[in-house]
Design goal:
A hairpin with an 8-residue loop joins strand 14 and strand 15. This protein folds into 2 domains: 151 residues, Immunoglobulin-like, CATH 2.60.40; 83 residues, Immunoglobulin-like. It is built from 2 helices and 20 strands. The strands form 4 sheets. Strands 1, 3, 5, 9, 10, 12 and 13 form a 7-stranded mixed sheet that branches. Strands 2, 4, 6, 7, 8 and 11 form a 6-stranded antiparallel sheet that branches. It has a 4-stranded antiparallel sheet with strand order 17-16-19-20, with no helix packed on it. The chain has 251 residues and is mainly β. 6% of the residues lie in helices and 49% in strands.
Length: 251
């Protein structure tokens, strides 16, 4: 099994602490809460298959019909991947399912951990880092702001120097928007190449992007022409997503 570790971005620390009040709490095999973090798995091209397993615990007193939506954020051509949510699906080639939803919900009850989530990656000799974002949401309210998420990177491990370069902060106000424009305040360790802020909807479609000209500043998002629901604002630097903030558009 490849080495793995969690690297919660600085901007996500507050969200991680609050995420236990969201839809579900996600814990890894060592008992760490991983909501709103990136799990790095140092998979080598020679690895046959690597796996990340998480325990899911619903928050609150009501039973919830929980679904998963998986985004293939950084595909590695030639590799294969799959996941389990109660039922395991057949491995598919990279790019086959840019957005992959579980076909049925799992009913989770208060105080009953569910161990039916597993993410699998098969590099098939291909190098590079593949990133997948998993979002847990209530099947009855798919765009509710209480969805929970985690990113999983299969590929090269992130070293100390690279971690320093990934340091970034991203905040959004007001959030939810409540009919207002949303201001994204950001700070980067350095600009790097092609630094930009992107905004994705829950279908994995990029709906906004803006290049960054400085290591600190703000970007305003006009919400009037966006549908109500959950979006993900990201800082991208050198082709890597280095910070993420969940944004809720509401009126």
């Amino acid at each position: 099994m490849a080495l793995r570790y969690i690297f919660p971005f600085a901007v996500l620390s507050a969200f991680t602490n609050a995420s236990a009040q969201g839809l579900v709490t996600l814990t890894d095999e060592d008992g760490n809460v991983v909501n709103g973090t990136v799990i790095f798995v140092s998979t080598t091209p020679e690895e046959i298959r690597d796996t990340v397993s998480l325990t899911t615990l619903v928050v609150g007193t009501e039973d919830r019909d929980v679904m998963i939506r998986r985004y293939e954020v950084w595909p590695v051509e030639g590799s294969r991947n799959m996941f389990c949510w109660g039922v395991c699906y057949s491995a598919s080639s990279s790019g086959t399912h840019p957005v992959w939803e579980s076909p049925h919900p799992e009913t989770l009850s208060q105080g009953q951990p569910f161990d039916g989530f597993h993410a699998y990656y098969e590099p098939t000799g291909m190098s590079g880092t593949a990133r997948f974002r998993y979002v847990w949401y209530d099947n009855n309210v798919p765009d509710a702001p209480d969805s929970s998420w985690v990113d999983i990177d299969f590929g090269g491990a992130v070293g100390i120097s690279e971690k320093a370069g990934l340091n970034a902060e991203l905040n959004a106000t007001p959030n939810p928007s409540a009919g207002n424009e949303i201001v994204l305040n950001y700070t980067l360790a350095d600009l790097g190449q092609g630094s930009e802020i992107t905004l994705y909807n829950v279908l994995g479609e990029k709906v906004r992007h803006q290049a960054l000209a400085s290591t600190q500043g703000r970007v305003t998002i006009a919400s009037a022409d966006l549908h109500n629901g959950v979006y993900f604002a990201n800082i991208v630097r050198n082709g890597r997503m280095v910070a993420t903030r969940r944004v809720v558009i509401s009126r």
